[in-house]
Amino acid sequence: MNRIAVSIDGLHQRAPELSARETLSKGQQRFLIGALLLLGLALAVAPPVTAIALVTLGTALYLFTFLGWLQLAAAALKRPALLTVSDAEALAIADDELPLYTVLVPAYKEAEVIGQTIAALEDLVYPADRLDVKLLLEEDDTETIAAARAARPAAHIHIVTVPSADPRTKPKACNYGLTTATGEIVTIFDAEDRPDPLQLRRAVAAFRRVDDSVACLQAKLSYHNAHQNVLTRWFTVEYGSWFTMLLPALAASGGPVPLGGTSMHIRRSVFDAIGPWDPYNVTEDADFGVRIYRYGYRTAVLDSTTYEEANSDFLNWVKQRSHWHKGYMVTWLVHMRHPARLRRELGTPGFLRFNLLIGGTPLVVLLNPVSWLVTALWFTLHPAFVQFLFPPWLLYPALLCMVAGNFFVYFAGIVGCRMAGFTGLVGAALLAPLYWLMMSIAAVKALGQLVTAPSKWEKTVHGLDWAVNRGD
């Protein structure tokens, strides 16, 4: 196959059961049809019992997800699990001892920020003759290509035009760059990223410290425009708790780690072992993190921060978040095609954490507004249908589960702020329920697109932050 064909179908040719080219496998289609028929029959024969059983199942799933997150938070508070490399240690590595490093930078319709992208890449403290930097630009994106050329990038930064072909996704572009990558380590930066200049050196030092089972180092992500508006504050609170508290605990727990989409540093040999990114999965990072663990490797979290642009526009944010939720749904469907095999490969704890994170996250976000509405109705109008669906033996555990679960998210946001040094954002964390409602809106959109356009890439508009608009 030629380069673009490999970029599109390399994973499907290698391991079709791990590719999202078909959202549902034949077995999953049969299971879904059978489950819907069985549910319809149950509702026809015994509607009260079936309705209460569904509510009980939803409550149990909510409880399982809450307990899993609680366990991760407890682990995070007990033991920091970050790989920390000091400036001195990073700079102590002689230039001629540094490995070749491939940096992939996929960008589409980023003419306004590509100049800043190039400047950030040129700020990386790494010898140019050991860098293989590829700006991956779609061949029909003439404005970004022209802007990149006008920025006159350094000689080691190569503009690579990616042939136009479906699916039009970030992982397809990265796979195209991977076909000619020369580095021993491969990383990805997004167009709006401002990575720690020493991040590559820190990754090299960290890889030297760990054994070969560590396939990937995920750097922390944060936002440089945290205080732009309340939405960017919420986004920063969320990232603070995730990358500073929960993700390191997840990596230390020995389960699959959904990667962050950028600033993950991967040994080149790992791609030979487990295959390329899935171009049909819009959260190829989460999928790749699961595959890393399925193939017997691990991910660790590197204490180095890449600063991104927090989404400051509501509609733009919904597009981005629905994209993430949809990708998690697709990732869960792909890896659950053979549940028994997945449990053997991940182990029982890893299997449970996979379902907690990848399956449970969008599910809980979808259930949240339903739980709030039912609770509000119960305390205000006492409608008969709520009393029917929630008999006392179910009502009080469900209410306790909802209150405890929502309190935990408050707790994680506030503690994450403190751990990440964002104490000034604690006030935003207290307004989090509005942010959760936005997540639910995005999850509903994602569920619809899962049916109509599972591989559609929702382009996030960048350059809305104050710094870019000021020209800083």
Ordered list of secondary-structure elements with their pairings:
Blueprint: H1 3-14, H2 26-45, H3 47-78, E1 82-83, H4 87-92, E2 101-107, H5 114-122, E3 131-138, H6 142-150, E4 157-162, H7 170-178, E5 185-188, E6 194-195, H8 199-209, E7 214-223, H9 230-253, E8 264-267, H10 268-274, H11 284-294, E9 298-308, H12 314-335, H13 339-380, H14 384-389, H15 392-420, H16 426-429, H17 432-452, H18 466-470
Parallel strand pairs: 1-9, 2-3, 2-5, 3-4, 7-9
Antiparallel strand pairs: 5-8, 6-9, 7-8
Radius of gyration: 23 Å
Q: Which architecture would the CATH scheme give at its second level?
A: Alpha-Beta Complex
Portion in helices: 55-70%
CATH class: Alpha Beta
In total, the number of domains comes to 1
Strand content: 5-15%
Mean pLDDT: 93
Number of alpha- plus pi-helical segments: 18
The helix-strand sequence is HHHEHEHEHEHEEHEHEHHEHHHHHHH
Give me the secondary-structure category. Answer: alpha/beta
Low-confidence stretches: 467-472
CATH topology: Spore Coat Polysaccharide Biosynthesis Protein SpsA, Chain A
Give the name of the CATH superfamily: Spore Coat Polysaccharide Biosynthesis Protein SpsA, Chain A
Q: How many strand segments?
A: 9
Shape: globular
What's the end-to-end separation, in Å? 44 Å
Task: Summarize the main sheet.
Answer: 9 strands, mixed
